[in-house]
Amino acid sequence: MKDLAEGPLHMVQSFNGYVVNGYKFHTEKYGSNKSTMNNGVCIRGSSYSTDNIDYYGRLIEILRLEYNALTFKQTVLCKCSWFDLTPKHSTRVHPQYNLVDVNKRRVFNKYESFMMSVQASQDEDEDEDEDEDDEDEDNNDDHDDDDDDDDDEEEEEEEEEGRGRGQK
């Protein structure tokens, strides 16, 4: 705890992609020119009431912070843009299939933008609401169609080797 309180080292690594909890994530910017996108994130929420709230958003940036301690410590933070989850206005749940539609034009700035990488998941039930006049916006598809096999192999090598863009 003391090491965390003293703050991270001055070196921070930024990544375009990251694999955690069995899911492969890309930043929104990195995935914008790909045929499939893996920038959608879901955090399973829980509350003291009987209703649990899941939070949906887009992955903007992936940062790895390193801490100087007796043993080397690091943590990965994900900066996200969260969607407004006001019932009836921005989310719908299909009654038969339990699919969640999220209106991606309703961004909610109240929530903190960072999450720990271990909190991340990609909700298989998530589907984003699209309008006909909004076809030029990114389509958040959490499935990897293997249309870009060469890119995927390069990404996996970078992710496994832990290479990133070092920033001070």
Annotation keywords:
single chain, 168 residues, mainly beta, 6-stranded antiparallel sheet, 3-stranded mixed sheet, 13% helix, disordered C terminus
Mean pLDDT: 69
Low-pLDDT parts are: 125-168
Distance between the termini: 23 Å
Instruction: Write down the Rg.
Output: 17 Å
Largest sheet: 6 strands, antiparallel
- Total domains, how many? 1
The total count of helices amounts to 3
Q: Which structural class should the secondary elements be placed in?
A: mainly beta
Secondary-structure element series? HEEEHEEEEEEEHE
Helical content class: 10-25%
Strand content: 25-35%
Find the count of extended strands (DSSP E, 2+ residues): 11
Task: Please state the overall shape, judged from the principal axes of the Cα atoms.
Answer: globular
Describe the protein.
This protein is mainly β and 168 residues long. The strands form three sheets. Strands 1, 4, 5, 6, 9 and 11 form a six-stranded antiparallel β-sheet that branches. The longest helix is centred in the last third of the chain and has 13 residues, at 149-161. A hairpin with a 6-residue loop joins strand 7 (91-93) and strand 8. It has one domain. The protein is globular and about 55 Å long. The chain has three helices and eleven strands. The model is unreliable at 125-168 (pLDDT under 50). Residues 122-161 have a biased composition (Acidic residues). This is DUF4216 domain-containing protein. Pfam families: DUF4216.
